[in-house]
Specification:
Layout: E1 14-19, E2 24-29, H1 36-53, H2 61-83, H3 87-113, H4 119-146
């Protein structure tokens, strides 16, 4: 699908150059499941699910439904963007994922305000959410600077 930073085009793959002071390695990512940002989004989804499965806010169906949809939206938009045919579309879906992640952060505040989470768990969820937001933003910046457009724009 994309080749990043190598400035060569490859269909159905995404390349990242990982630099180490001693060696250069190339990793080809051919599945969205291999993207670190998607893995972080998935973990956030699981963390939230574990909270409402524990029973703390089991009767707040609206909040459960909304936070379930928005955590899923972060993962799903990263996946959908990866599977699209162009870099511009990938960036577009990453921006949607970043927005959904902001929505998750707002809902975490609601969980805290309604006393569904302890202070330490709240801090943990917020730290992970903000880390994910930074990773999404960094990945968007990386895609923008890559110069690769994808096969739709050839």
């Amino acid at each position: 699908m994309f080749e990043v930073r190598c400035l060569r085009f490859e269909v159905r793959s995404l390349r990242f150059e990982v630099s180490n002071p001693n060696i250069y390695t190339m990793a080809t990512i051919t599945r969205f499941e291999d993207l670190e940002v998607w893995q972080f989004a998935r973990n956030q989804c699981k963390d939230i699910f574990e909270l409402y499965e524990s029973g703390n806010f089991l009767k707040d169906f609206e909040l459960i439904n909304q936070i379930n949809r928005s955590t899923g939206s972060v993962m799903d938009n990263i996946a959908e963007g990866f599977e699209r045919a162009g870099n511009k579309e990938f960036i577009h879906f990453m921006l949607i994922a970043k927005g959904s992640n902001g929505e998750v952060r707002s809902q975490i505040y609601r969980m805290k305000d309604r006393c569904y989470v302890a202070e330490q768990k709240f801090i943990d969820l917020m730290t992970k959410n903000e880390t994910l937001s930074k990773k999404i933003n960094a990945f968007i910046s990386y895609l923008k600077s890559s110069g690769i457009q994808g096969f739709r724009y050839m």
